[in-house]
Amino acid sequence: MRADRLLSLLLLLQSRGRMTAQALAEQLEVSERTIYRDIEALSFAGIPLYTFCWVI
């Protein structure tokens, strides 16, 4: 269920601090794209999340 995953995502970030999308995806057993969609949904709901994009 998506609501459970969103809560798990928030709890992981709260307990561990910074995590990559890849690490979150592995932990929650979903794709990285799903993590990006979930972060977008949380941000849209007013939960402040900060993301970084490194371009090399």
Structure summary, number of beta strands: 0
Instruction: Please give the CATH architecture.
Output: Orthogonal Bundle
Oligomer category: single chain
Name of the level-1 CATH class: Mainly Alpha
**Helix/strand/pairing category:** mainly alpha
Stretches with pLDDT under 50, minimum 5 residues: none
- The number of helical elements comes to 3
N-to-C span: 36 Å
Q: Main beta sheet, described? A: none
Q: What is the N-to-C order of secondary-structure elements (H for helix, E for strand)?
A: HHH
Helix percent band: 55-70%
- Return Rg in Å: 11 Å
User: Do you know the CATH topology?
Assistant: Arc Repressor Mutant, subunit A
Q: Can you tell me about this structure?
A:
This protein is mainly α and 56 residues long. It has a single domain, classed as Arc Repressor Mutant, subunit A (Orthogonal Bundle). 64% of the residues lie in helices and 0% in strands. It contains three helices and no strands. The radius of gyration is 11 Å and the shape is globular. The model has no long low-confidence stretch (mean pLDDT 91).
Output the keywords.
single chain; 56 residues; mainly alpha; Arc Repressor Mutant, subunit A; 3 helices
Question: Summarize this, please?
Answer:
With 56 residues, the chain is mostly helical. It has helices at residues 2-16, 21-28, 32-44.
Topology:
Elements: H1 2-16, H2 21-28, H3 32-44
